[in-house]
């Protein structure tokens, strides 16, 4: 769960967190002591009292972390520039148990930038999970949606969870396979 390189933390205030892998939302009390086991994509996985919890970036102050800088994009940015930022944002979404982003894990099947009737940009994503019964599924979908909606000029992100085709390790990038020892 944690190693000597894991950063010790003490919660400075009550904090909402998600129990991993069940996906249950809980409140961790101020004063809880644990270790950061993963700090990727602006969220934190912490090990406290024998359990893993995911703390969202906006609650990072509870463990002494600064929030990320807001995204910026020119008002006249092209759809191509927005799509590039969409893929960058998708690479900041991580499974709390696996230190690899959802793109390199092969969980994102497609991401498209479109325009609504009012001309505002919409992002449509189709993604899957490594296992259909994953308790973190809705948490990952919400993480993808909220990070895409942080992009300036994006009015809404529609994230659809699909299971066809089923995920397999063959969908992982070469670097992800190498990192997990599956190459």
TrEMBL record:
<feature type="domain" description="MIP18 family-like">
    <location>
        <begin position="86"/>
        <end position="159"/>
    </location>
</feature>
<protein>
    <submittedName>
        <fullName>Fe-S cluster assembly protein SufT</fullName>
    </submittedName>
</protein>
<dbReference type="InterPro" id="IPR034904">
    <property type="entry name" value="FSCA_dom_sf"/>
</dbReference>
<dbReference type="InterPro" id="IPR002744">
    <property type="entry name" value="MIP18-like"/>
</dbReference>
<dbReference type="Pfam" id="PF01883">
    <property type="entry name" value="FeS_assembly_P"/>
</dbReference>
<dbReference type="InterPro" id="IPR052339">
    <property type="entry name" value="Fe-S_Maturation_MIP18"/>
</dbReference>
<dbReference type="InterPro" id="IPR017776">
    <property type="entry name" value="FeS_assembly_SufT_put"/>
</dbReference>
């Amino acid at each position: 769960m944690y190693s000597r390189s894991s950063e010790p933390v003490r919660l400075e205030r009550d904090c909402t967190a998600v129990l991993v892998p069940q996906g249950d939302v809980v409140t961790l009390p101020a004063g809880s002591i644990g270790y950061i086991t993963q700090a990727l994509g602006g969220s934190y996985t912490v090990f406290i009292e024998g359990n893993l919890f995911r703390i969202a970036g906006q609650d990072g102050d509870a463990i002494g972390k600064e929030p990320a800088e807001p995204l910026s994009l020119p008002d006249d940015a092209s759809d191509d520039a927005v799509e590039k930022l969409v893929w960058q944002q998708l690479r900041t979404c991580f499974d709390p148990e696996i230190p690899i982003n959802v793109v390199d894990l092969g969980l994102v099947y497609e991401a498209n930038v479109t325009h609504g009737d009012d001309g505002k940009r919409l992002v449509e994503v189709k993604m899957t999970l490594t296992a259909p019964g994953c308790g973190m599924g809705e948490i990952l979908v919400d993480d993808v949606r909220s990070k895409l909606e942080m992009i300036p000029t994006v009015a809404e992100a529609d994230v659809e969870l699909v299971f066809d085709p089923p995920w397999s390790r063959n969908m992982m990038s070469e670097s992800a396979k190498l990192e997990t020892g599956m190459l």
